[in-house]
Amino acid sequence: MERITIGLKSLKIGDIESDGGMGLSLAAVGNTFESTAILSQEEGETTDFFVEETDDPVESLSVKGATTLEWAILDMTPDTLVKVMGGTVSGTGDQAVWSGPADIPEIEQSIELISKKNIKYEITRARIQARLDVNFSKKEAGLVRIKAKVLTPTKEGEAPIRISKVVS
Description:
single chain, 168 residues, 11 strands
């Protein structure tokens, strides 16, 4: 039977395991804004090596393209902003204030996505970068746009990305 991905049931992130494996304690960081979650792989690059004696390459070397996940959330609570953008939180409850970082933080997390058709995508290690995209309009919502670049896991034999069927 085909495995078809339609829609998004959940998107969770969490700390990578201490051994470099897929994180086991993952949680949602706000609700995903409609139609913003996109997992894509760039086209790779191929370099051909030629010699004078023939028109065909004698060797060809291919490198795969980067894989990225992009999505946006509505949640501007200080704890959520720290999780995806770094910085600090001072105060608590309604008095909590997020202060952005002076430099771009190095945030690495594991990511799990589950589609409405129960197809699970697991990204063992990804570098998270986020930015504010706020248009003060009656017809648009302020968003936190998040981009995650898939990185090679530090755990030996661990795949960068896995796709499986959720079996209940």
